[in-house]
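Students often ask why we bother encoding 3D structure as a string. The short answer is that it lets us treat folding as translation between two languages. Here is a chain of 150 residues written in the first language.
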Amino acid sequence: MQFRKAERRDVFAIVQMIANDKLGQLRENFSDPLPDSYYSAFENITNDHNQELIVLEDDNKKIIGTLQLSFLQYLTYQGGIRAQIEAVRVHPDHRGKGIGEKMFTWAINRAKERNAHLVQLTTDKKRPEALRFYEKLGFKASHEGMKLHF
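And here it is in the second language, the structure alphabet:
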């Protein structure tokens, strides 16, 4: 298996994984061809040095996982950097094989390489299995998150 930065040619496989769950089916527009908005977002992500869209390939070069790391610089914690992990997905054919744990280990190590002092994530309350998974990895529910959708 190999982790690498995503390339434009990977966007279709990434969106397919993001759309492949109950919540993703409600908010994504997975079609062939994909709407241009996904490719525009990809360009914005890849042009921002504080964003890393990552894919995990198996030995046959098939994409089996994806995640996005955002590095947030702020003034608190003496000008610290926090890493935000988003959009973690494992291809349905590879779930239950420890791939998600490997992805988080990789992401945490990458955050340390970028001198982040913490890694954070959010999870939808409609995904209790994800919450249990994150707690098993050592994440603590230390804050209450809030959102305002437009």
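Translate back mentally: The chain has six helices and five strands. Keep this in mind for the problem set.
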